[in-house]
Amino acid sequence: MIAILDFGSQYTQLIARRVRELGVYSEIYPPFKEPEELPLDKIKGFIFSGGPSSVHSPNAPFCSPKFLELGKPILGICYGMQLISKMLGGKVEKSQKREYGYAKLEVLDHSDLFKGLPSRFQVWMSHSDRILEMPEGFKAIARTQNSPIAAFKCEQKKIWGLQFHPEVVHTAHGKEILANFVFSICQCEKNWSMEDFIEKSIRDIREQVKDAQAICALSGGVDSSVVTALLHKAIGDQLIPIFVDNGLLRKNEAQKVRETFQRLGVKIHFVDASERFLKALRGITDPEKKRKIIGETFIRVFEEEASQFPNARFLAQGTLYPDVIESVSVWGPSATIKSHHNVGGLPEKFDFELIEPLRFLFKDEVRKIGELLGLPEYIIKRHPFPGPGLAIRVIGEVTKEKLDILREADAIVLEEIKKAGLYEKLWQAFAVLLPVKTVGVMGDERTYEHVIAVRAVESVDGMTADWAKLPHEVLQNISNRIINEVKGVNRVVYDISSKPPSTIEWE
Ligand code: XMP
User: Fold this and answer.
1) 382 CA distance to ligand 1 middle (Å)
2) Which of 427, 504, 506, when mutated, tests ligand 1's pocket best, judged by the most ligand atoms within 8 Å of its CB?
3) Best mutation site among 385, 505, 507 for ligand 1, i.e. most ligand atoms within 8 A of its Cβ?
């Protein structure tokens, strides 16, 4: 495997994914670990990521100099390269000006990292500091107009460095550069495939569970669906997936999930708790209170259902790798560990052993596994859906009547987006029911009914988002259909706010 030391770059996870796409396993570590804390026997090489800091800043993240003495190949990218230079006695120039965007790279040495590549190609730069003097024993292997040392190497120390980002798609031949590092320089074998992963997971799960039972909370989202399908493949009916219908799901959602898993031969323990959730939400308008009530009700329902299976010793969860990576905080040297509770925070007192088969996978790898396990496209490619469901899209108090209106409107939004071939281009698209009524006219009659807001956003990770510039024709179809087909709505508006400052959800 390749170990990546994370110096805080927004691209760190992308580096790991690129290496995995090459068929080589990679993991991300915080730079303050000592080398002996890492699985050195498995690590064939290191990549030092970029990062937002300057090596001259007092809070700049460092790593143990022992990493440079291990004799294993290292590739420093951007900040990673500057840090190596500084640690080995080179001179890094502090610059206020940022070089950002495309640059033309001229290769000076084709012998290893740039083997088989053209002499000139485009690369993507994003740095302020740059290397003025290389450490002793290093030589420049590529340059650009602004950076005479756009790449360097020291064969004797087995260290390479790139001022630009090979992991982003804007860098031509980035994949080949990484492949040269991973295969020719580090001598890794191509042995990471999702097919192998499934086989190995199945073996591990069988060994862990033996003849006991396992439960999981199936929501119909990608992660819990893949966990369910994977565990079912491993232990068959010893897995009891519990599906809680909280009455806050989209139109026909419970039915679709039931049918999908029936087709795969998975028996689901269905619980219709919609009345209970609605009752708990009665009179509540505050969004955070709604979330809290829904989370707590879910736990109680899940506990009660789980207690019907006294032989269930294991709880399977769809925790993913980005949720467990220990990352350096961009704002300081301290370590932050993100915690994640997939099932809305199941309490500690739950006396289950955890099974988290996806904890080393990225989302796109999870999707690939879902595909290989025979899950339909509609599950694998679906947009994220919040745990509190439509309760945070009915603004104000949640009632059955309002939920039904929203469900119909939401179904039309999704249908039209899919019909226009836009579904996969969007991060999310949905309807929101507003707590106001407005005047309209239908035929000869005056109406006084609800407003639906349509939200559609583009995003990479949900942290920032742009409102989608949907074609007017699509918006027109959505609006016409909602007003004509959904009883109780006489006006549709489109949300043209981006995140930040607006959030994706309205509550
Ligand atoms: P916001 O509204 O914060 O949403 O811009 C970012 C992403 O998170 C989802 N979201 C939630 N997911 N429980 C969830 O499981 C929640 O309470 C929740 N609130 C927001 C939202 O759909 C978007 O994808």
Assistant:
1) 15
2) 504
3) 505
The CATH number fitting domain 194-380, selected from 3.40.50.620, 3.10.400.10, 3.10.129.10, 3.30.70.2190: 3.40.50.620
Q: What is the pLDDT of residues 404-427, one digit of tens each?
A: 999 999 999 999 999 999 999 999
Q: Taking CB atoms and a 6 Å cutoff, what residues make up the pocket around ligand 1?
A: 291, 384, 386-388, 428, 462, 499, 503-505
* Alpha-carbon distances of 396 from 88, 176, 281, 284, 506, rounded to whole Å: 60, 53, 10, 7, 11
pLDDT of residue 127: 84
Q: What count of other Cβ atoms lies within 10 Å of the Cβ of residue 221?
A: 18
Instruction: Report CA 474 to chain centroid distance, whole Å.
Output: 28
pLDDT at 241 over 80: yes
The predicted structure's pLDDT at residue 470: 98
The number of the ligand 1 atom at minimal distance from the alpha carbon of 503 is 5
Q: Mind telling me the catalytic residues?
A: 78, 165, 167
Identify whether the C-beta of residue 507 lies closer than 8 Å to the C-beta of residue 248.
Answer: no
**pLDDT tens sequence across 141-158:** 999 998 899 999 999 999
Instruction: Find residue 15's DSSP bridge partners.
Output: none
Query: Is a pLDDT exceeding 70 seen at residue 348?
Result: no
| CATH 3.30.300.10 segments of the chain | 400-494
Residue 310 pLDDT greater than 70, yes or no: yes
> For residue 278, what is the DSSP state?
H
- For 400-494, which CATH class? alpha beta
